[in-house]
Design goal:
The protein is of the alpha+beta class and 230 residues long. The protein is 24% helix and 29% strand. It has helices spanning 14-21, 33-40, 52-57, 60-70, 102-110, 211-223, and strands at residues 2-6, 26-30, 48-51, 75-81, 86-91, 129-133, 144-151, 155-159, 169-173, 183-191, 201-208. The strands form two sheets. It has a six-stranded antiparallel β-barrel with strand order 6-7-8-11-10-9. Strands 2-1-3-4-5 form a five-stranded mixed sheet, with helices on both faces. β1, α1 and β2 (26-30) form a beta-alpha-beta unit. The longest helix is centred in the C-terminal third of the chain and has 13 residues, at 211-223. The chain is elongated and about 60 Å long.
């Protein structure tokens, strides 16, 4: 099982790295979020460790790019406790138990996760009008009219407060595409209304679409412009 650890060189103390390495079969250490993405395009990983001081110092753009990733891959924030020479574990979700730490994270969240690389694609802050439905036939009255907040050729963030639970299959129609056929999407993460500051909605991955639809979305993202609706 291979995991990746993001820690700036100034915080990458040998005892700190050694303590993390004890709990995993293979550990890749990178010094920045940009290096994280570059490495994960090549290497299939089962989880991510994020050093808290390094995360705090990251740029706004890097944090935004990371936001999607941590809702797909098991991710644990960690911090070196200089006083006790131990690793503090900060879970994103509910803490598994009072003594939960790095080993708990690896055993309970990473061991069952299928290792995979990630492919970076151009992300654009494009607002496309879309229809969202739980049924690919889009029965009358079942679709929600909304829009995307941002877009890649592999997925998008859908604005809204619908019942879009993580792992659910939904269908979207994009009138701006030359081929407006329904696109199957899987909900990868959810941002609830009033959960944190920002726009509520769901991050989704495109899982059923034509090559032509994906290619056209890639053009939208690279150009920063959306074609005219049909």
């Amino acid at each position: 099982m291979r995991l990746i650890f993001v820690v700036e060189e100034r915080f990458a103390l040998e005892p700190y790295i050694a303590a993390i390495r004890e709990s995993v079969d293979q550990l890749i250490v990178v010094s920045s979020i940009k290096e994280l993405f570059a490495t994960m395009e090549r290497e299939a990983c089962s989880g991510i460790f994020l050093d808290v001081p390094s995360l705090v110092r990251a740029t706004k753009d890097d944090k935004a790019a990371l936001y999607d990733l941590i809702h797909i891959f098991p991710t644990l924030r960690v911090k070196w406790d200089h006083r006790n020479s131990t690793v503090r574990a900060l879970f994103y979700d509910s803490v598994p138990g009072p003594d939960a730490g790095v080993e708990t994270f690896v055993r309970e969240q990473c061991a069952g996760f299928l290792p995979r690389p990630t492919r970076q694609s151009e992300r654009a802050a494009l607002q496309l009008n879309i229809l969202v439905s739980p049924d690919p036939s889009f029965p009358e009255g079942a679709a929600i009219k909304t829009a995307t907040l941002n877009l890649t050729a592999n997925g998008c963030f859908i604005i809204g407060t619908g019942e879009w639970t993580r792992g659910r299959r939904l269908w979207v129609k994009m009138p701006n595409l030359s081929d407006p056929a329904p696109i199957g999407v899987d909900v990868r993460w959810r941002k609830e209304w009033n959960d944190v500051p920002g726009v509520p909605g769901a991050g989704v991955e495109f899982v059923e679409m034509s090559d032509g639809q994906r290619a056209e979305l890639e053009v939208f993202c690279v150009s920063g412009r959306v074609g005219s609706p049909i």
